[in-house]
Each structure stands twice: as structure tokens, then as C-alpha cells.
Amino acid sequence: FGARLNKNTLVEAHYWFQYSDRAIPRLNTYEGSDNSNLARQQDRTHRAVMKLSHFMKKGALTLQSGLNAENMIYSIRNRVYGEGYYNALYSKSEVYSSYNKVQYRFQPARNALVKAAATFNFYHVQTRDTVNQTGYDQFRREKGLMVSWQQQLTNLFSAMVLLRKDWVNEFSIPVIPYLGFDWTLNRKRKLIL
Fold it and tell me: Cβ(119)–Cβ(144) under 8 Å?
């Protein structure tokens, strides 16, 4: 779904669902019985993304948010002769996550582009094995800032400088600098170094 709110503002929304139910093949090196180590996995996944873009004379502001919900059941069954099949492992997992990004793009000149972005992502994972009575329940937050400058220096040469800073939960990751370039060796064959 997409719609224009006005001449300069566009909103988009996407949703998809996926269901899978499959047998997981055994390792080629497995030497046991054909009636044991039978693995199966079922997945149900819902995903939704919403994006709002506002275009200006020399730039664009984009707000994007995505949601993800996954449910998975994974089991391994073994046959016990005279008794039938028993679960060696029966695990139920749930994953909930949210991806959020704000980005501003500014083109001060025809041959230059500046980008600044902030991200805020959240994850919640819960899993439990009903056979072994084990599992965990974890929450994770990620925040990030990024700024970059791209410059087309000649018809054949461009350069980019980028700085990125991330936090995972309350842990601060050092600033990540990046310096790169593209050199077009052959335009006709689109050969770029």
C-alpha cells in the first residue's frame, strides 16, 4: 500500500505472513536408525513495515518502522521400540522485534550527498524446551547514530567518509570510522575498483 499525503510526502505500508512446516534432514554422518533423530520445524512469521518520506528541494526526511513476530516449534523425536515415538527435544520459541529508523539526506551540490541517521531497535526472545525444562527470556535494545559524506571528485573517482556509533543495551561500542573510494576503470564495461 502506498499513498501521497501531499505533493512532497509519501506514506507506504507493507505486511506479509509466512508459514512453514518442514522436516529437517539428518546429518550425512548420522549412523543411527532411520526411526530416530527425526527433526521437524514449524514457523509462523508476521512482518509489517511503515515508511513516511518527505521530500524537500535538496533533501529528504524518512521515518521507517518495522515490526516482526515469529513463533517457532522445533522437535526431535526418537522411536522407542515397543513404546512408540518420544520427544528428545520439544522447543517453543517466540521472537518479537521492532526496527525504527530516522534518516535525513541532503544534497548540497550535484556531486555531493550528506546522510545522517538514527536507529532504535528492540528485540525480545523467549524459548523453552518442555522435555528438558530449560529455556531463556531475553530483551535487547540497540541504538545507533550514523553520518556520512559522499563526494564525486571527478567523472571517474568518488570518495566517502562515514562515522557510526552504536549502543547495545547500556554497552557503548566504540565509534566506527570508514573511508572508501570508487574508481571507474572502464565505463563501457562498468568496471569499478
Answer: yes
Q: How far is CA 75 from CA 35, 41, 92, in A?
A: 14, 7, 9
Q: How many CB atoms lie within 10 A of CB 91?
A: 19
Sign of CA dihedral 183, 186, 189, 193: negative
If phi over 0 gives left and psi between -120 and 50 gives alpha, with beta otherwise, what is residue 190? left
Report the C-alpha gap between 81 and 85 in whole angstroms: 8
Q: How many CA atoms lie within 13 A of 128 on its CB side?
A: 3
C-alpha 40/C-alpha 82 separation (Å) is: 23
Q: How is 48-59 classified by DSSP, letter by letter?
A: EEEEEEEE-SSE
**Which of 10-24, 28-42, 53-67 bottoms out in mean pLDDT, i.e. has the lowest?**
28-42
Q: Residue 8, SS3?
A: coil
pLDDT attached to residue 193: 63
As a whole number of angstroms, the distance between CA 177 and CA 159 comes to 14
Give the helix ranges, DSSP H, for 100-179. Answer: none
Q: Which residues pair with 163 in a beta bridge?
A: 147, 177
φ and ψ of 4, to 5 deg: -95, 125
Output the pTM of the full model: 0.77
Pick the closest to residue 180 from 147, 151, 144 (CA basis): 151
